[in-house]
Amino acid sequence: MSWQRDSLVGTGHIDQAAIVSAAGDSVWAASAGFTPKPAELRTIVAVLAAAEDDRKDQAPISTAQAEGIHVAGDRYVVARIEGRSIYARKGRSGICITKTKQAFILAHHGEAQVAGNASSTTEALADYLIKAGY
Questions:
Q1: Sign of CA dihedral 83, 125, 94, 24
Q2: Torsions phi, psi for 7 (to 5 deg)
Q3: Residue whose C-alpha is closest to residue 51's, from 42, 41, 40, 62
Q4: Which of 95, 103, 113, 124 has the fewest Cβ atoms within 10 Å of its own Cβ atom?
Q5: How far is it, in rounded angstroms, from Cα 56 to Cα 37?
């Protein structure tokens, strides 16, 4: 798909990615072999909802910080959660998850890629999707 080739994976800063509905009930597009599980997506939705509104139950954030989050079967240690985004690491690789109006982007960077570049790339695509109404 062109979003993977041009906006995420094609930049060289991301090696795998997916775009998922904001409700976490459908994967709109994903890199081959990068398959987040339904339970993982429900957890991400809960963490993002709590992060966006501090009046909501913050237990999902506390749990994610204590236990990490799982994406495509791998456990990541949460580095930080800010508003619309979750940043987490597994060794030298990591994941950036950023919410838009109608979806969230899961972007994985490998050991050879720089986390900051991966995050900037993911955030830039999220900004573009928000401006486009997604």
A1: positive
A2: -95, -20
A3: 62
A4: 124
A5: 24
Q: How far is CA 125 from CA 7, 90, 122, in A?
A: 7, 23, 5
Angstrom distance (rounded) from CA 86 to CA 131:
21
Mean pLDDT of 29-56: 93
Read off the tokens for 96.
Answer: 């950036």
Helix (H) or strand (E) run with residue 47 in it: helix 38-52
C-alpha to C-alpha distance for 119 and 107, rounded to whole angstroms: 8
How far is it, in rounded angstroms, from Cα 68 to Cα 31? 23
Residue 115, amino acid: A
For residues 100-109, average pLDDT: 96
Q: Would you state the structure tokens that stand for residue 41, as one six-digit string? A: 């997506």
